[in-house]
Automatic annotation (TrEMBL):
Protein name, entry field: YdcF family protein
Gene3D superfamilies assigned: HUPs (3.40.50.620)
Keywords recorded for this protein, A-Z: Membrane, Transmembrane, Transmembrane helix
Transmembrane segment boundaries: 12-33, 39-62
Positions of the UniProt region annotated as Disordered: 190-230
Biased composition (Low complexity): 211-230
Domain of life where this protein originates: Bacteria
KW Endoplasmic reticulum (keyword) present: no
N-terminal signal peptide: none
Length: 230
């Protein structure tokens, strides 16, 4: 998938965190005392942004490592672009390997979840991310019947919604585990909650559903959780 506006804004924010201190020093050098006040303001903004960034990063890692406590009916892996040779990138391979660990752990406990690689075809790609991800999973020994590729989504929200629709169409209901990168965990969890709220507005469900990130994989409400990979 092509880089989204949200990713571009995040990149610009990261650059600004490092650029602001440099600009502050240059202001002092070029304008002396006049630039000192502006430099102090820039330093304060940079320090606040850096503290927020570090807090977000730490919380994302901790959140992604929390025990999900589910026995998932499916493990959805979010796409993240392909290499020039149309194979998975190291980042995407990390997500797939995390999903494989979950899948194999569930198999050892007697559960057999579907693996759902989710990702459409970007404008600069000759095949869908889901196709490349499926190929990687099969190469790692996953039986073909345990992989259900979702190859239409182009955003994180669509990853969640189209995957749950696909599972519903294949008669799969129950908890869904979403696998993404650590930096992407909180956004994914937030969108899963939003998706669940949208569905709950039209589809009633039983009380007592966990308040963590949720989405639906069938006509009845089901819970989901989000984990990250390094």
């Amino acid at each position: 998938m092509s880089r989204s506006l949200g990713n571009q804004l995040s990149l610009l924010a990261g650059i600004a965190v490092f650029a602001l201190p440099v600009a502050a020093v240059l202001l002092v050098v070029w304008f002396g005392l006049v630039g000192l006040s502006v430099a102090a303001l820039l330093g304060l903004v940079s320090a606040s942004a850096s503290a927020a960034f570090v807090s977000f990063a730490v919380y994302s890692v901790v959140y992604g490592r929390m025990r999900h406590g589910l026995s998932p009916t499916a493990v959805v892996v979010h796409g993240a672009g392909l290499r020039r040779d149309d194979t998975v990138t190291p980042l995407l391979r990390g997500r797939l390997d995390r999903a494989l660990r979950v899948y194999r752990g569930e198999r050892d406990r007697g559960n057999r979840p579907l693996l759902v690689p989710s990702g459409g075809q970007g404008s600069d790609e000759v095949r869908s991310e889901a196709s490349a991800m499926r190929e990687y999973l099969l190469e790692q020994g996953v039986p073909e019947q345990d992989v259900l590729a979702e190859d239409r989504s182009t955003t994180t929200r669509e990853n969640i919604e189209r995957s749950t629709e696909l599972l519903r169409d294949h008669g799969r209901s129950g908890p869904v585990l979403l696998v993404t990168s650590d930096y992407h965990v909180l956004r994914t969890a937030s969108l899963a909650r939003s998706s669940a709220r949208t569905r709950r507005s039209s589809v009633p469900g039983p009380p007592g559903t966990p308040s963590r990130a949720r989405s639906c994989a069938s006509s009845s409400r089901c819970s989901s959780s989000t984990v990250g990979s390094a």
